[in-house]
Amino acid sequence: MKVIYSILFVFLKVLLFCVSIPSFAQNLVTNGGFENISGPGINCSTPFRTPTGIPGWEQAHGSPQVQMSSGPCNQGDSFSFQSGNNFFFGLFTAIYPPGYPSAGLRTDEGIYQNLTLQGGKAYQVSMKVTTAQFVVEACSGLTPYNGDSTIPIPNIPSNDRQEIFRQAANGLISTTFYPKKTFSQIWIHHDPDYSGPNSATKIDDVIITEVNAINQLSGTSGVVCGSTQFQIPIASTYYNWSIPTGNASIIGSGNTVIVTPTTGSGYITISVAVDNGYTYSVTVYTGPPQLAYIAVNGQPTSYATICVNNFASVEALPFYATASYNWTLNNPGNAYITNYQNASTAFNSYTADCYELGLQISNACGSTYGNLTICAQNCFYRYTVQPNPAKDYITIEFESADKANALPDNIELISEVSKKQVKSVNVQEVFNQKKFKNGKAIELDVRDIPRGTYYLHVLNSRQSRDKQVERMRIILE
What we know:
The protein has two helices and 32 strands. By secondary structure, the protein is mainly beta. The N terminus is likely disordered.
């Protein structure tokens, strides 16, 4: 049965890895806040150039600058989104911040960064911008600026570039971007066709994260409890919707459809093929969460035994990112759970007893429940001490001495008068060196110790706090 449980445990772990709803929180942009300025002479009148300027960025053309929030030109203080960070700025024509040189300015400043934006995926692109007009593009083929101020903005073929933004802005802007092919760069530059008043562009906090390509328009994100709307915000001459995994029906044929699960709980994948040649998908969970089992120290079980004052890992499987977890404990005065609201937690007890753990897993569709019994036992060997009173030797005999973790750490003899230790034995060393008398006893030679009253201390760091030192009064006569 243990073999079957282990196989099931591994199978569910692999299954969860394959179908779990992905998380896209990582910013794909390196140094999107334009921090870590380095190199000599970096200020508002000196163009940056990687690697002596801003890590992660290159000049695509012109002389873009890095303006610090406090420095010779000090433009940043006038922008509420600045918060003391650095930012990139460039000039369209002839408006100059204080101290900026007036010669050689161009209308086509630009910077870029090498990163991969894959066709068939979706990305959330956001940044803080103040500009009269600028352009952000995904592209391939840009090379670093070579210092020749007479060359135009690089002539990249139209199929190697795709516009993300072309607009004026004053604050945070954001959009979802669907690459029509796989691009290798992100390019930020002035709009060469802009013919309005002179202006400057400031950019900060550039963030690009991968997101679900298909939007869920109703209900709780990632959970489907009934008929739910989904949309792909891409213009296409056709939309071929399908359910490649799971069981559900689809009503509709345009860019928005209604998906209705046809079975109980489980994962379903919703896909749509469009005329750009890509198929986009999103995986959601339908119905209340289902508890397969609870594992204790990696083993699926409904009943487990542990040693007192020893942590046991407790995990509810499968894990649902869209669900909430709530553990309960019947006797919290003598035991505790490290985290009552996680799928994975740990249990420990102060005293030997059996404890009942309850679990509720909930999502927008409902709840499921589970129970677990953990019995904590005193796993340390009992022992006897004799004779008492003693004359020449004191013998401490354990019921067994075959397991090191069931034995104490040390045995000490403490004088009642001086409170000082007069004898000490490292029990773990005796175990390792196999020097037990008769296989399970330790003998203290007390012939050279003055007669009187002493206390035998048996120290065990693996016991609960109130039992780590056991004391016995010993008379030497």
